[in-house]
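User: I'll paste a sequence; please echo it back and then give the predicted structure.

Assistant: Echoing your sequence first, then the prediction.
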Amino acid sequence: MASSSTRQYKTGDNRKKAIVVAKNDIEYYGLESIVESAGYKVSRVNFDTDKILARLLIILVDGINQDLVEILKTRNKNRIPVPAILVLKNKKDFKRLNIKILKIESAIFANDDKEIFLDAIRSVEKSSFYVSDSLLEEEQESPIGKLTMRQYEIAVLTSMGKTFDEVAEALNISVKTVRNQASLINKVLGEKSYYQAIVKYF
């Protein structure tokens, strides 16, 4: 019995659980070893899951899209939301992220070295906000931060090519509400038309 429990401990069953959200195995295995070296037991899920109960959530981001917004909304519904680290494959996506609204604790660039990734993990463990220097170089003042969560969702869905009818259906709201919010989004982003604003910022 003693040797059995020792074996369980060595396989990492007592470690904190981390979840990596990645679309394929190659991307997942690239992150797994780094997260495990920080003392976590790691498993992988896809974007289309609601099973994100863990001590740490790592999301490999390949564009700001509905999948990302949905999984962060699901995470935020937890009584105690799981701390999240976004690993961005494209630095320009950082400009389009509304970190405040999405309640993101940390963001790093996929090409950052291992130590930066470990610094991000240690920071979120201490409930500190962390953004890698390589992303801060890309940061600029953007009116996106002034959008509400609903406006942000509408803008993201529109940027994916969805019509107002399709956006209304996806968010379970009326088409009239979508049109009104689109008008407000355009005022906040300050472009000549709503679609110009979406093209420029999303």
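The beta strands are 16-21, 40-45, 56-61, 84-88, 106-109, 130-131. The first helix runs from residue 2 to 10.
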